[in-house]
Automatic annotation (TrEMBL):
Protein keywords: Golgi apparatus, Membrane, Signal, Signal-anchor, Transferase, Transmembrane, Transmembrane helix
Organism of derivation: Digitaria exilis
UniProt domain Trichome birefringence-like C-terminal: residue ranges: 101-369
InterPro entries (UniProt xref): TBL, TBL_C, TBL_N
Gene Ontology terms: cellular component: Golgi membrane
Subcellular localization, as worded in the UniProt entry: Golgi apparatus membrane
Family: Belongs to the PC-esterase family. TBL subfamily.
Gene Ontology MF term list: xylan O-acetyltransferase activity
Name listed for the protein in its UniProt record: Trichome birefringence-like N-terminal domain-containing protein
Main location per the UniProt record: Golgi
């Protein structure tokens, strides 16, 4: 089996549907500042790198995914899957003045991480960022020796080690962050109060978590037979309540295990979907399919707030361990052109959830790099 197909079999077989939950978030983002304004760790309180616009930049993309990066799975490799337009590759995220972002420096980041382990934990949107970062690092050090390993089973993972730097970048599949286990009868149980499967992640020096999409929907691929919360076992429950309980369990686990460590912790925010063209003034029934240009400003997006976003902010604000929210919502709202659509290699409906790589996730990693390289402390 070829490497890309093997990766898909290990990590995406559980949840390949990629159908968006029908929730979005307001572009005005007023609620951000009530909970995590300092979480954005900007140069000053008036600087927010997550507000800005996409500007054309002919020096982009930062790498050629189809030809030179061995880490992009077929589902994200839009050019390899026949996407003919290329304008979506030529945009750089520019924060509003007085903010600015440095150009991503993969060699500097590899040096900063020398001897360390960086772990991504979450669903396929986290995979989007993970594979983007691997490509950005590989482009910066194309001659560096890399080794890959993977594990299947109930806790699938993929690890890529940059041998010349002693840097390991690993991804752990976790659709809900809390445990999804099989009981003695073989039934799948979503345990809202347990994170026993998280022990391996404690060895990481940098942790990036993200999981919210699958809480809103139940899939034949990514599902449970029962939900357990303490001694209470139910077949189903209000999904917003379940998400809240699960995220609170994650927060307690982080605080209990990492509050007094130097481990840097990030949480990937809500990535906007574009399955409803009315969100940006298009006719009813229009989706992201065929879109080739981003939206120009916040006023062009009319989607409704996603309730899970507010929950994430509230939980992060109550934690002892500083956690940086990668607040990617606004920048992704503007990129109706950046999704994999029919160029995911899937013969089904267009995917307006995941992103082409290279593409939008590269901007997430540029912000991620800025937070790490700038030396700003992580705060709520």
């Amino acid at each position: 089996m070829k490497r890309r197909d093997l990766l898909s079999a290990i990590l995406l077989a559980a949840c390949t549907a990629a159908t968006a939950a029908k929730t979005t978030i307001s572009p005005r983002h007023d609620q951000r500042h009530t909970a995590v304004s300092s979480t954005s760790a900007a140069v000053s309180s008036s600087c927010d790198v997550y507000r800005g616009s996409w500007v054309a930049d002919e020096s982009y993309p930062l790498y050629d995914g189809a030809r030179s990066c061995p880490f992009v799975r077929q589902a994200f490799d839009c050019r390899r899957n026949g996407r003919p337009d290329t304008a979506y590759l030529k945009y750089r995220w520019q924060p509003s003045s007085p903010c600015s972002l440095p150009r991503f420096d993969g060699l500097k980041l590899l040096g900063l991480w020398r001897g360390k382990t960086v772990a991504f934990v979450g669903d396929s949107l986290v995979v989007n960022q993970y594979e983007s970062l691997l490509c950005m690092l590989h482009a910066a050090a194309p001659g560096a020796r890399t080794n890959e390993s993977w594990a299947s089973g109930e806790n699938p993972s993929i690890a890529v080690r940059f041998e010349d730097y002693g840097v390991t970048v690993v991804y752990y599949l976790s659709h809900y962050l809390v445990d999804l286990v099989h009981d003695k009868a073989g039934r799948v149980v979503l345990k809202l109060d347990a994170m026993d499967q998280g022990r391996k992640r404690l060895a990481a020096d940098v942790l990036i978590f993200g999981a919210w999409r699958w809480w809103a929907r139940k899939s034949v691929y990514c599902s449970w037979d029962y939900i357990q919360d303490g001694n209470t076992v139910v077949q189903d429950m209000d999904r917003t309540q379940a998400f809240t309980k699960g995220l609170q369990t994650w927060a307690r686990w982080v605080d209990a295990n990492l509050a007094h460590t130097a481990t840097k912790v990030f949480f990937q925010g809500y990535s906007a979907t574009h399955g409803n063209g009315q969100d940006w003034g298009a006719p009813k029934g229009k989706t992201c399919a065929g879109e080739t240009l981003p939206l120009s400003n916040a006023a062009a997006y009319h989607g409704q707030p996603n309730p899970q976003d507010t929950i994430v902010r509230r939980v992060l604000a109550g934690m002892s361990k500083p956690v940086h929210l990668l607040d990617i919502t606004f920048m992704t709202q503007l990129r109706k052109d950046g999704h994999t659509t029919k160029y995911s290699g899937d013969t089904g409906n267009g995917d307006c959830t995941h992103w082409c790589v290279p593409g939008v996730p590269d901007a997430w990693n540029t912000v991620f790099y800025w937070v790490l390289a700038s030396g700003n402390s992580l705060r709520h």
